[in-house]
Specification:
It contains 8 helices and 7 strands; from the N terminus they run αβαβαβαβαβαβααβ. By secondary structure, it is of the alpha/beta class. It has a single domain (12-278), classed as Rossmann fold (3-Layer(aba) Sandwich). Strands 3-2-1-4-5-6-7 form a 7-stranded parallel sheet, with helices on both faces. It is globular, with a radius of gyration of 20 Å. The structure holds nicotinamide-adenine-dinucleotide.
């Protein structure tokens, strides 16, 4: 066994590494970018909306980190190739890719249009395929290993009303994670995925009022009794991007406050628990 002691075990190994964060919005992208910068990485903030990327760059700089912003629509193959090339030119290398992009169109399956289906598949699955392929080509050629992390959802693990294309696309992301992990492993590149439950990002709190489309409070869906905070997802993303996860690849890590651990029986009323002494015991 080779260990360098606890201190060595806890080194993230992200100092001076270059991390591309795709989806630099105010939610998970922001937390992941700030977490990686805090761990010493140089961060390339990539977003469809250049002003979001620029705002995040300014926030990282105000905390003493180094970052640059890039406007890009990763649904387009050419944009994904261009942004990987621009980031690696700007900083001289690329080590870590974190892709939090994901858009949702809600609706009953019977009401959704072809466009809704294609939009969801493109906004979740195609864009990560584009970025993973472009980054994979670069990282293999660079020869220094690397890490890719994407964000799926518990909607990719269990069915949810009004989420059909989103859930299907997120499940596809988990499969793509495994395939890329196998193909990139010989080059020392790890590929993982994080599946959050309900997280209190501005999109969910401001737009949806912390409720799911069926009107129930999202906090009630988790046995821990609350929604997750963006930083609680980012901590897992930073771990997977770091040397601490050097032997973790092809995995989906669920971060959902216990939501998917619970069988549909729900919370038990203690008064309803049967008294074991009244039950017939085996002889
Ligand atoms: N918030 C939750 O409760 C929750 C739960 C499970 C999974 N997720 C997933 O986490 C991720 C982030 O969620 P969030 O709430 O922070 O979202 P968000 O909407 O705040 O951030 C997503 C960012 O991606 C950008 N983007 C969208 N399409 C793009 C494209 N084609 N190219 C480049 N950038 C693009 C958007 O401009 C936005 O800034 C999503 O994938 C979402 O599906 C969120």
């Amino acid at each position: 066994m080779t260990t360098g002691g606890v201190g060595r075990l806890l080194e993230l190994g992200l100092g001076g590494k270059v991390a591309l964060v795709a989806g630099s919005g105010p939610g998970l992208g922001r937390s992941c970018a700030l977490g990686l910068a805090e761990a010493g990485a140089i961060v390339a903030c990539v977003d469809l909306d250049g002003t979001r990327a620029a705002a995040l760059v300014a926030e990282i700089a105000s905390r003493g980190g180094r970052a640059a912003g890039f406007e890009s629509d990763l649904r387009r193959t050419s944009d994904a190739e261009m942004v990987v090339s621009e980031v690696s030119k700007e900083f001289g290398r690329l080590d870590v890719v974190v892709d939090v992009i994901g858009e949702i169109r809600y609706g009953r399956a019977v009401d959704l249009s072809d466009d809704d289906w294609e939009y969801s598949l493109d906004a979740v699955l195609r864009q990560f395929f584009n970025l993973g392929r472009a980054a994979g080509r670069y990282l293999v050629a660079q020869g220094l290993g690397g890490s890719l992390v994407s964000i799926s959802s518990v909607s990719g693990l269990a069915g949810a009303p009004f989420h059909a294309p989103y859930g299907a696309a997120k499940a596809g992301l988990m499969s793509l994670t495994r395939s890329l992990a196998i193909e990139f492993a010989p080059a020392g590149i790890r590929v993982n995925n994080v599946a959050p439950g309900a997280v209190a990002t501005p999109r969910v709190v401001d737009r949806l009022g912390g409720r799911s489309p069926d009107g129930l409070p999202l906090r009630s869906r988790a046995p821990l009794g609350r929604m997750g905070e963006p930083d609680e997802i980012a901590k897992v993303v930073v771990f997977l991007s770091s040397e601490l996860a050097s032997y973790v690849s092809g995995q989906t890590i669920v971060v959902d406050g216990g939501a998917t651990a619970e069988f549909a029986l729900g919370a038990m009323d203690p008064d309803l628990i049967p008294d074991n002494s009244t039950l017939e015991q085996p002889r």
